[in-house]
From TrEMBL:
GO terms for molecular function: transferase activity. Residues 26-139 form the Glycosyltransferase 2-like domain. It comes from the Bacteria. The keyword rRNA-binding does not apply. It comes from Dankookia rubra. One of its GO terms (biological process) is single-species biofilm formation. This is Glycosyltransferase. Keywords: Transferase.
Length: 898
């Protein structure tokens, strides 16, 4: 059979329907079922009140000659209303495309096409209803999909509710038998003839149309009849469902990108509903920074409608009841997204989450999950629960379970979170509990008014709309996601650390974050290995959000089978790692700074479109001097990273020696860890120039083996006397038991910039007898205020200290006793030669004055700009949701208990 497509049937001109008048073309692919084709054709020809309509039968190489013969008979009997096209057998998609292209060319005035399979039928008023909907809909409405009334295996299925692209991504509820506006085809979508041959081709077509900017509209009670048989193309496709879903997701990966899903979720299905004490209305949001407030009675009606028709009506999955002060504190401290992320996870296994905020006795943030069924929730300023749990409370407000909210009876399955913050915190109140009780009563009253009314008679086979976003995320390997919505023109970057203790590494991250924020980035701190961190105002000033997690697989390391002796991570195989991915997936870029277990997340993040960088600060060593640690682990995952940040030339050369590609390495040198006013620097230099008295020696850092704390103790013991005054500031962090008995009092760590400046201004000499280092910020900070440095020549210290010019370097390859003797001799020599000491201090200040973070970060900034352009469009076209009244659609009849 030739591939040409002849039009068969040339009716007499006088009887022919003029093709120029055709408004709707009905495309009927036909293969293998000639006995059913007459029913389909007859149902088209029997349409009442419809505009001029033509049926185009596409004989897709049917082996039965009856198919063409029947179509010819109808073409002869109904001139100009029935056409027959014939082609080689190429499949359903190709037959639909053939009919489409013919109809668009043959009927220039046709405003829409309808696809009717040869074994289905239409009731007489279907096209008239569809035509009326087309005329009333805005241009962006691309297709009109019906409810499905099945015959054969009889069933009546509902497809109602506002159109949701998010729901369509998860499951296809738009039947191929839909009226499609001409403009959709003009934009390019066609039925796929290559990838989706085995099925789901109509699903693919609707997603193409959605990506072209069109949306669907439900056509209620239209009269579409679908023949359901136990064996069909649909049942064959369902047997390959997993394979076809994979193909579909690959074809439409942009719709499933994390940022695109977030944008859709915010527009169509906000995840949270906030009831705030003493404030009217309910705020609906995905991102707490971008909420829409609606009236509480309207929202209650939505909750009830969603309980009655969960596949058609969306209600936020999580309800948040809060007092104003704790809510404001969480916002100010950038902690609200973390709380919402934790709540989403915990509500999988708990009925409620209660947050208590307490004052910490130290500058530290702590986050603790407490399983305490005996504790009352009246003192929790914030309560969170699922909307289904809230509706169950309303279903029986007199139940013991509801009564237990006052604490008289322990309420099971409550997760209690305790957040510790330094400084004043809001006093505990019962406002959130009273608000919850008031909402239960209001919902119970609303339910009572609808009790006994009939519910929808159609079966809604779709899943809950409140769960669609979760299912879409699960399809790409994400669990709970941080509720952060992308903003057009803004970029997001995450900083991933194992701990946060305000040491040099953390200061580097904060300063880098501050530079990026000044350039328009939104910055997010993620601490992967702990539920506590040191805290200060600099944190909220540096980051847009702060998230702590622990126990999501970050500690699963493989020690016995590693990479060249280094450990590898098994975090990627932990089911909980999907939640960790969800904290980072909203970012355009992520920098992993020594979070060793999280190396296993890098490849999955990169597949989601996130640009991922590793950051290396030093090559660590064991107590026996053997290299080990994060740099060795990163080398095992190098292929998954877009780039690797190194802070020194020494470290860059080490990475090249380990086989890391040169073009992946970005040299990002360190600068002082905090800003100091020039006047403060000048004051310190002037004071030191005229200072007399004993030589002031300072150690500032961790009291651990890496820092050579045993060497420091021996040096202090050997230099004690009237000519030397020593101060030691710090604490043991690594827990390696290396702290010896020091002969001077140990002062607690200092974080405040003014206090640090005071320490450096006090000192004449900073001593750092480390066993291994990177580029210590404490050296750069001391140098800035004119303090000379004596340090072991390890790591990249020689890149920031010139021996004899602005400091003293002690060779690291000497015996331990010789190293201690060198430090002791240096202190005695400089105590006696103040002129040499002052010259070193002045040279050090001059060196440090030339350093600033933006200059040091130029290579990184350029790479980020190249990989993530500064003007980032919204990921997908976001529809305008017109739902001001927030009540159930007219076809949803309220009923009794859900």
């Amino acid at each position: 059979m030739p591939d040409a497509l002849p039009v068969i049937g040339n009716p007499p001109a006088a009887a022919a329907q003029d093709p120029a008048t055709v408004a709707i073309a009905v495309i009927i692919p036909a293969w293998g079922q000639p006995g059913l084709l007459p029913e389909a054709l007859a149902s088209v020809l029997a349409q009442r009140g419809a505009p001029p309509t033509a049926a185009v039968v596409v004989d897709d190489g049917c082996p039965s000659p009856s198919t063409a013969a029947i179509a010819l008979q109808y073409a002869a009997a109904h001139p100009g209303r029935v056409f027959l096209l014939r082609q080689r057998n190429r499949g359903l998609s190709a037959a639909r495309n053939t009919g489409t292209d013919f109809a668009l060319a043959a009927f220039p005035q046709a405003r829409a096409l309808f696809f009717l399979d040869a074994d289905n039928r239409l009731l007489p008023d279907f096209l008239a209803r569809a035509w009326a909907a087309l005329g009333a809909a805005p241009p962006g409405t691309g297709w009109f999909y019906p409810d499905i009334d099945e015959f054969g295996a009889a069933q009546n299925c509902a497809c109602g509710g506002d159109f949701s692209l998010l729901q369509l991504i998860v499951q296809n509820y738009c039947e191929a038998g839909s009226l499609v506006r001409r403009e959709v085809f003009a934009a390019g979508p066609r039925f796929d003839t290559a990838t989706m041959k085995a099925g789901f081709e109509d699903w693919d077509f609707w997603l193409q149309a959605a990506r072209a900017g069109f949306r669907g509209q439900h056509l209620p009670e239209a009269g579409f009849l679908y023949r359901r048989r136990p064996e069909s193309m649909l049942s064959a496709a369902e047997r390959q469902r997993d394979h076809l879903l994979r193909l579909l997701r690959e074809r439409h990966a942009p719709l499933l990108a994390p940022r695109a899903l977030a944008a859709l979720e915010a527009a169509e299905a906000p995840r949270f509903a906030l009831f705030e004490v003493d404030r009217p209305g309910v705020a609906l949001f995905l991102d707490p920074a971008r909420a829409e407030t609606v009236e509480a009675p309207a929202f209650r009606r939505r909750l009830l409608a969603a309980a009655q028709a969960p596949g058609a009506v969306h209600a936020p999955a999580i309800c948040l009841l809060a007092e104003a002060e704790p809510l404001a504190l969480l916002r100010d401290q950038r902690l609200l997204p973390m709380l919402l992320w934790w709540a989403e996870r915990l509500l999988r296994d708990h009925d409620m989450v209660a947050l208590e905020i307490v004052a910490a006795d130290r500058p530290e943030l702590s986050f603790e999950l407490r399983e305490d069924p005996e504790a009352a929730i009246a003192g929790s300023g914030i309560l969170l629960l699922g909307n289904e749990r809230l509706m169950r409370f309303a279903a029986d407000p007199l139940s013991p379970e509801v009564a237990s909210l006052d604490g008289e009876v322990p309420l099971p399955r409550i997760a209690r979170l305790r957040l510790g913050l330094p400084g004043p915190v809001p006093a505990a109140g019962a406002g959130a509990l009273r608000l919850l009780q008031a909402e239960i009563a209001a919902l119970a009253k609303l339910r009572a008014t609808s009790a006994g009314l009939p519910g929808p008679w159609r079966i809604d086979w779709r899943g809950k709309r409140s769960g669609m976003a979760m299912e879409a995320r699960a399809a790409i390997g994400l669990g709970a996601t941080l509720p952060v919505l992308p903003v057009a023109g803004r970029r997001d970057i995450g900083f991933l650390l194992p701990l946060f203790a305000f040491a040099g590494l953390e200061k580097v991250v904060m300063r880098q974050a501050q530079v990026l924020r000044a350039r328009g980035w939104r910055t997010h701190l993620v601490v992967a290995g702990a539920l506590r961190m040191e805290w200060g105002p600099e944190v909220a000033e540096s980051f847009n959000s702060v998230t702590l997690f622990q126990g999501l697989g970050e500690g699963r390391l493989e020690f016995d089978i590693g990479y060249f002796g280094g450990t590898t991570s098994r975090m990627g195989t932990d089911p909980a790692a999907a939640d960790a991915m969800g904290v980072l997936a909203h970012c355009d870029a992520v920098i992993n700074t020594h979070a060793a277990g999280c190396h296993a997340l890098v490849a999955p993040l990169r597949r989601l479109g996130v640009k991922v960088f590793g950051a290396l600060h030093l090559v660590e060593r064991t107590p026996w001097g053997e290299p080990h640690g994060n740099p060795h682990m990163l080398a095992a995952y190098e292929h998954a990273y877009d780039g690797v940040l190194v802070i020194s030339e020494v470290l860059r050369r080490w990475c090249i020696g380990q086989g890391l590609p040169r073009d992946k390495l970005l040299l990002v040198r360190n600068a002082p860890g905090y800003a100091t006013a020039p006047a403060r620097v000048a004051e310190a230099l002037a004071a030191r120039a005229t200072r007399d008295g004993p030589l002031r020696v300072l150690f500032l850092g961790r009291l651990d083996a890496q820092k050579g704390i045993d060497r420091l103790a021996a040096t202090i013991a050997a230099t004690r006397g009237p000519d030397v005054a020593c101060r030691v500031v710090g604490r043991e962090v690594l827990g390696d038991g290396a702290r010896p008995l020091l002969e001077v009092p140990v002062e607690p760590p200092v974080q405040d910039a003014a206090a640090l400046d005071a320490l450096y201004a006090w000192a004449d000499l900073l001593v750092l007898p480390s066993r291994f280092e990177g580029v210590p910020l404490v050296i750069l900070e001391a140098q800035r205020l004119g303090c000379a440095v004596a340090a072991t020549d390890v790591g990249a210290v020689a890149e920031i200290v010139a021996d004899g010019a602005d400091g003293v370097l002690v060779p690291a390859d000497l015996e331990e006793a010789a190293i201690i003797d060198r430090f002791t001799g240096t202190i005695h020599r400089l105590a006696a030669d103040r002129a040499a000491l002052r010259a070193m201090g002045a040279a050090a200040a001059s060196r440090a004055a030339a350093l600033d973070w933006e200059t040091c970060m130029q290579d990184l900034l350029a790479r980020l700009d190249a990989l993530v352009p500064g003007s980032v469009p919204m990921p997908v076209p976001v529809p305008v949701i017109e739902d001001a009244a927030m009540h159930a659609p007219a076809w949803v009849a309220p009923r009794g208990r859900p």
